[in-house]
Every structure is written in C-alpha cells, then in structure tokens.
Specification:
The complex is a heterodimer of chains A (276) and B (437). With 276 residues, chain A is mainly alpha-helical. Chain A has 14 helices and no strands. Chain A is flat and about 70 Å long. With 437 residues, chain B is α/β, with parallel strands linked by helices. Helices cover 45% and strands 14% of the residues of chain B. In chain B, strands 1, 2, 3, 6, 7, 8, 9 and 10 form an eight-stranded mixed beta sheet that branches. In chain B, helix 18 packs antiparallel against helix 19. The chains are: A mainly alpha (276), B alpha/beta (437). At the A-B interface, helix 6 of A face strand 1, helix 2, strand 2, helix 4 and helix 11 of B. Chain A: Belongs to the binding-protein-dependent transport system permease family. Chain A: It is found in: Cell membrane. Chain A: Its main location: membrane.
C-alpha cells in the first residue's frame, strides 16, 4: 500500500516537473519551429504547431547575408575572455574578503552589488567617449574590459559565498603544515571550490553571451558578437519572423548546448553549501 | 644586392601607395528589404570604384537610431554613411552634425526628386541627406468585402465613410474585423497614425507658442473617433497591434480596411505571402470632409554623411550611386520593376513599366503628394513633420502620449482622461526643455 502511494507520488512529481520544464522551454521550441516555416506560415493565425511545410530557406538566407562564424568567434572571445578576467580578479579578492574580513568588507560587497542597480544607459556616453579616445571602439579588448567590470560584482559575490562555506580550520591546518599563501589558495582552497568556480564561470559565460546593451553600442562590425547578428534580423516593417527565428536559433544554440552538457556542474555549483 | 633592395623598396612603396588610396566606408543601415537588396548589388559600385571598399552594419531601426545618435552626438566617427529618416535630418542638420551633400555626381538629378521628399531631407534649402526610398500612408481595403456589403470606396474617402464601411463589413463571428489600426504605444507606432488622424481633423501638437493642444476639441474628436471605431469594428487586443501585427491580420483575411504605410502595399499584394493579394484596393488617406486636409505622413529613409567622417568625397560618391536613376534601372534589370525602391523620383512614376508592375504605384504617389511636412495641419504650427514633430524631445514625449492613447484603446482610461494626461505630461516636458515657461 505504502509502495503504491510512493509510486503515485513519484508519477505526479514527474508529470508536474515535465510540464513545468516544457512550459519554460516552450518559447525556445517555438522559435526553433518558426525558423523552419515560411514567412507567410510564421505569421499565420491560428499558428500551426507541427503540420506545416518545413523549409530551411530562412537558414540559407541568414547564411548568405551575414558572417555567422565571425560573430560567433567574437561572442566566444568576449564571453570567455571577460569571464576569465573577472575570475582572475575575483578569486584572490573573494579569498581576502572571506578569510580576512574587515569592518568594511560587507559594505564594499554591498557597494559592488549596488553598481548593478544603475541603468546602463546612464553610463553610455562617458564610456563611449573613453572608448573613442582610447581607440577601443569596436574592439574585442574593449568589450572584454567592459563585460569584466560589469560581471565582476556577481562573480565576486558568488565566489565569496562559496569561500565562506569552507571551514577556516582546514586553511589553518594547511598553514601549520607550512603551506605558503599561494600554495594554500592553489592546493587547498581551489580544489574544494572547483564546483563553485565552475558554476560561476558557466553562469558568467551565459550572462556575457547574452549581454546586448554594451555589445550593441560599443561595436559596429569588427567586434560585433551574436547579439548584433540577431539585431540585424528584426524590422519594424515587414516579414521577418522566420529569418529572425533562424538567426536566434543559431545564436542561442552554442550556449544551449554548453548549458546542457554542463547542467550537472551548474546545479552542483549553485546548490553548493546549500545543505549544511 | 643593392638592385634587389631597390626593387623591393619600390614594390613596397607601390603596395603601400595602393593601400593608402583604398578607402573603406562604414555604412550603417536599417534592416528593410530595399536596403538588403542594395547590399547585394554593391558589386556594381565596386566595379566602378575599385578604390572604395564597403563595410555594412545592418541593424533593427530602434537599435540603429540609438547607435547612430550616440556616435554622431559624441563625434565618434564610427560611420561614414548613416541611414536616417526625415525626422532626424532637420534636427541634425541644424546642429551641424551632417555634411551638406554637394558632390553626388553629375548623374544625380536633384530636380527629379519628388518635391515633398526633397523638402523633407533639406535644411536651409540644401540637401543634407539623399532619399533612398519614400513612403506615405494610405487606405488598403478588401474589394470583395466591400462588394458583398454593397459599398464602393471613393478614391478620396472621408473619415465618416471609413467608419460606416468598417462597421458594415465587420463580422466578428467569422473573425472579420472592419478596420485595423495601430494601437501599440510608441512615437513611431500608434502616434504616427494618431498624429496624422488629428492633423486631418484640424488638430495640432503645439500652437505657435509651443503650448500643447490636447485640450482642444480637435484632439477630443480624433481620439473619440478612434476609440469608438476600434471598439465597434477593430480586432480584439488592438492596443498591442503595430505595423507587423496588422500586416499579419490583413494578409490572413481578417481586416476589411487597414490604414498604414504605403510600403505595406507591396507585402499585401504579393501572392506568395498574402492570402488576399488579388482582392486589395487602395485609396488616399482620409480627410475629415470639411477641412480637405489629409494630414498625411511622410517618411523617407535617406543616406547622410556625418560631420565626423573623414571620407566625405567617397561617401558622397556611394550615396550618389545608391540614390540616382541608374540604381533604379539596375534593380529593375536584376530583380524586376516591382522591386525598385519607391517614393523618391518623379521619373519612376512616369515610367509605364513600373506603373504596370506595381498596381499600388499611383496611389502611393498620390499619398506622397498629399503630404505636406511644412504645413501638416490647417492651423499654423511652429514645427515641421507630418506624423511627428521634428524636435529632439518628440521621441520621448510621443511615446509617453502614445501610452496614454493605447491605454484609452484598451479601456483602462477614458479618452478624456488620456487627453488630460497627455496635455499635462507634454506641458511638463516642454517646460523642462525650455520651450514654454
């Protein structure tokens, strides 16, 4: 009897989880389906779900009109470059804040977080002028710098939270065994927070990949990433849903695949220290 | 050894000299069909100008506008050619942000430009942008539904007839709505239509002292007409409909009348995309009967050279190529007459082949001719512009006022309340900007 109840509960949970999951995934599925429709079918009302004339003409058009690979490479360099740069600054900073806190540590952390509250457009003109004068407009280096600074508060906060979960006694023991500061960070601390660092890395790659405001405003062609690629397929007047969906599918596919393969790592990192 | 060194140096000098001569123009443009076609045809320009290279930045209209505005305001110098509308031309030219176009080439026939379009892209009598394609607004309607209802669309309808016809052909049970109009908030969305509607009914945005006029009876009449008609004969959820949503509704046979940009004609009459392609008729943007003013809108996507560009001559050479008569012939030869950029040149509308290939050619010309950006309404105004007011503050004010009228259409506020709010917020912003005290 108890076994039957538990099986039923499992079934209900599974059904609810799948329904919830599919509901969240539906917009992406719809984008992918629309990318295989003709423009006339893409705007048809009521829309057809699966029974339409499947075509790859939108992908062909997108391929012939834009340099997808160039945009893709820019996205890879900007997203990973800014994430690694942010990690390089944040790991030692988070270590210092977690293990040698001062009275001002919390205030500094809160201040860093508060910078995320400011609307980006408020800083656009000064940043644009700095970039213009330093020759950083439309360069990957410029975007790596900006996105590193934008993501730094989140990277630092995440790492700080993970580091705080490490018992101080372990580090003390290492010190008693004669480990230097560098060795302590590299051999003792880092292996223990690898899941945390990995999930921070993944989350920030996703954030940087999706960032549109700065990438669109500070690039024109040479450093334009996939966000600019998508922006060139929407139009206020005309038929473009099919082509826009094809461009969006091509832009989100790499990050979706990365997320799919690393989901275990992501979940592990995000729940790290949650049950203690 | 010395001879080899000399030869090598000479070769290097020639190579570098070649590189120094070649110029790369960065062109910012909007993602519309005509511009995409231009990109595909640039081999013709390159063959004629091997020393000029082209780099394209194609973006969605709003993103493009933000980007080029930032760049031109900060003298960023990222672009050599910008695609802008006639909203920007007078504002930017006045501020010295654009270079006057005086080297468009011997073949560029300035006198051939349609007078209303020519005026819309000029400032102080000088051309500051060259129109690539132009558009106005007109009535598109379903001839079959009109026939069924025993109605005949006049060539120049008035608003009373439009309302009567829209109510008559509405069949909500069959999902056929008499009229589809823009409802989505935005200075370039519902306010484009509503400003044109109010113009035609004698309304204006500001009086000669820049005082907002939403408290005047003309605006009350316009908004009442719009809200009531859309409630009786419009599609459900109209407050979220912009150009593309209405296009989809019309193409799938759900609208009896659609009043919008003339560029829509080529979409709704294309049998590949439109289920009603052979049933569409066209008429002039309505007038209110007694005033005789169409209040029509006028838009021209044009190419301009920002003041910060250092490649002025090459940029003008390209603009000359893209907007002269030979370019129209080039498109017609490669893609057919129906695909040529419309609405800029008198000679195009005198061309029998074009008039035959595009059934909407003459109604489009009539709509463009009916627009008067210098005198958009019967009362005097201190501004220019048909469906907009050519001041920098208009983007913000227009969208905020558009939100009020979109809310009135959705039934969240009454038309009276929406007008009161519009008056208040416009007066506040204009005071802040220093137009009124």
């Amino acid at each position: 009897m108890a076994r039957q109840g538990s099986a039923r509960r499992k079934l209900v949970t599974t059904v609810i989880a799948w329904t919830f999951g599919l509901a969240i995934f539906f917009p992406i599925l719809w984008t992918v389906l629309t990318s295989f429709k003709t423009e006339a079918e893409a705007i048809a009302s009521p829309p057809s779900f699966l029974f339409f004339h499947w075509t790859t003409e939108n992908y062909a058009e997108v391929q012939s009109r834009s340099n997808y690979f160039g945009h893709f490479m820019n996205s890879v360099v900007i997203a990973f470059g800014s994430t690694f740069a942010a990690l390089a600054i944040a790991i030692p900073s988070a270590w210092a804040m977690a293990f040698s806190p001062t009275k001002r540590t919390k205030n500094i952390l809160m201040w860093m977080l508060s910078t995320k509250m400011m609307p980006s457009v408020g800083a656009l003109i000064p940043v644009y002028l700095i970039f213009r004068d330093t020759g950083l407009l439309d360069t990957r280096t410029g975007l790596v710098i900006v996105l590193t600074l934008i993501n730094l508060p989140i990277v630092l906060w995440m790492l700080y939270t993970y580091f705080k979960e490490i018992p101080g006694e372990i580090l003390e023991a290492a010190r008693m065994d004669g480990a230097s500061l560098i060795k302590e960070i590299v051999y003792v601390l880092t292996p223990m927070v690898v899941p945390g660092i990995a999930s921070t890395l993944l989350l920030n790659v996703i954030l940087a990949w999706n960032e549109a405001f700065w990438t669109l405003n500070l690039t024109t062609s040479d450093a334009a990433p996939l966000t600019a690629f998508i922006a060139s397929y929407s139009s206020p007047e005309g038929l473009f849903y099919g082509k826009l969906s094809a461009a969006s599918t091509m832009a989100i596919a790499p990050i979706l695949i990365l997320g799919w393969f690393s989901q275990k790592q992501l979940v592990r990192g995000l729940t790290f220290g949650a049950v203690k | 050894m010395r001879l080899r060194t000399l030869l090598f140096s000479a070769c290097a000098a020639v190579t570098f000299a070649g590189t120094a001569i070649a110029e790369t123009l960065t062109i910012a443009t909007v993602n519309n069909g005509d511009m995409i076609r231009m990109q595909k045809l640039t081999d013709d320009f390159k063959a004629k100008n091997p020393d000029i290279d082209l780099k394209w930045v194609t973006l969605e209209e709003n993103v493009l506008r933000q980007k080029v505005t930032t760049d031109i305001a900060t003298k960023g110098g990222q672009f050599d050619i910008m695609t802008i509308g006639n909203y920007e031309v007078p504002i930017w030219a006045k501020r010295g942000w654009l270079k006057p176009l005086d080297a468009l080439g011997a073949n560029y026939d300035e006198a051939d430009l349609l007078p209303t379009i020519h005026e819309a892209v000029s400032y102080d009598g000088k051309l500051y942008a060259s129109p690539f394609y132009g558009e106005s607004a007109m009535v598109m309607y379903r001839k079959d539904l009109f026939e069924k209802a025993g109605l005949t669309m006049p060539a120049e309808p008035n608003w009373d007839f439009i309302a009567e016809a829209a109510r008559k052909i509405t069949d909500k049970n069959a999902s056929i709505y008499g009229i589809c109009l823009r409802g989505k908030a935005g200075w370039g969305e519902n306010m484009a239509f509503l400003t044109a509607l109010a113009n035609s009914m004698g309304g204006r945005w500001f009086d000669e002292q820049w005082k907002p006029q939403f408290d005047q009876p003309e605006w009350q009449k316009s908004i009442d007409y719009y809200v009531k008609l859309m409630k009786d004969a419009g599609p459900p959820g109209a407050s979220a409909n912009g150009f593309n949503e209405n296009l989809a509704l019309f193409q799938t046979g759900k609208c009896g009348i659609w009043i919008d940009a003339t560029v829509a004609a080529s979409f709704v009459s294309n049998p590949k995309d439109s289920a009603v392609a052979d049933k569409v008729g066209y008429a002039l943007f309505p007038a209110s009967g007694t005033l005789g003013n169409h209040g029509n809108w006028l838009w021209a996507w044009s190419l301009a050279v920002p003041a910060g560009s250092k490649k002025d001559k090459a940029a003008q050479k390209f603009i000359g190529w893209a907007t002269d008569k030979a370019y129209i012939d080039l498109v017609a030869g490669k893609e057919g007459w129906a695909s040529v950029p419309p609405g800029t040149r008198i000679s195009l509308y005198e061309n029998a082949q074009y008039r035959q290939a595009a059934p909407f050619a003459l109604p489009t010309l009539a709509a463009i001719k009916a627009a008067n950006t210098a005198k958009p309404t019967v009362k005097p105004v201190p501004y220019t512009g048909g469906q907009f007011v050519a001041i920098a503050e208009f983007q913000g004010i227009g969208t905020a006022v558009g939100q009020q009228f979109s809310a009135a259409l959705a039934g969240q506020v009454t038309p009276e309340q929406a007008l009161r709010n519009a008056q208040q917020l416009t007066a506040r912003e204009m005071t802040k900007a220093g137009y009124i005290k």
